[in-house]
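Late entry, evening session. Most of the bench is empty. Finally got around to the prediction I had been postponing all week. Sequence below, unchanged from the version circulated by S.P.
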Amino acid sequence: MSNFVPIPWPEEPIPNCVEDCRECGLYQHGTRMIWGEGNPDAPIMIILDNPGAREDCDGSPFVCGTRQTLQQAAFEVGLKVNDLYITYILKRRPTRAYDKETVRNICISHLDYQLKEREPKILFCLGNVAVQSFFQNSDAEVKSLRGNIHEVRGYQTLVAYHPLAVRRRPNLWSLFMNDWKDLADLYRSKH
C-alpha cells in the first residue's frame, strides 16, 4: 500500500472580471463559483465538467471522491500538485436540471479565458462531458479517443475517463492509470 494521503488543493481566486457572472444562470443553483484549484501556473491543465461538493453539510471542507482519485493517480505516476491545475467547463456545481448545451456554450468562454491567461503545455480532459464540450463535438467519446494525443484548439490534449466513473467501475482503473502514465510521459518529454 502506498503512502498516499489526499489533501485539499488550494483554490485559485476568481478573477474580478467574472466573479459576478450570471450569464448562464447557474448562480441560481446556490453554489459558489470555483475558478480552479492546484497550481494556476502548472504545465498540465486538467479539465472536468463541473466542480463537485467542496464542503460537507456542516460547511467543513473535505476532499471529495473525484479529487481523491485524481490525487491517487497523480501520486502513482509521480506527478506533484505543483504540476497540476484543475478547472471546469462549468464554474458552478449544478444542483438541478438546466439547459446543458446552452450553459456549456456560455461557460466555455471562461475556459478560453483561462487558456489564454495560463498557457498550459498539456491539457487532460476527463469524462465525456468535458471532452464533448472542449472538443466541440457532441459525438466525442473517451473510450474511442483515449490513448492518443489530440491537437485541440492549439493544445496537445489527452483524454481519460472521469474519476467518478472509475470509482463506480473499478475495472476502468487500469485504463485510467494507463492514461495518467501517458500524461506523465508526455509531460516529462517536454521538461
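Two things to note before I forget:
The longest helix spans residues 100-118.
The chain has one domain: 26-190.
Will write this up properly tomorrow.
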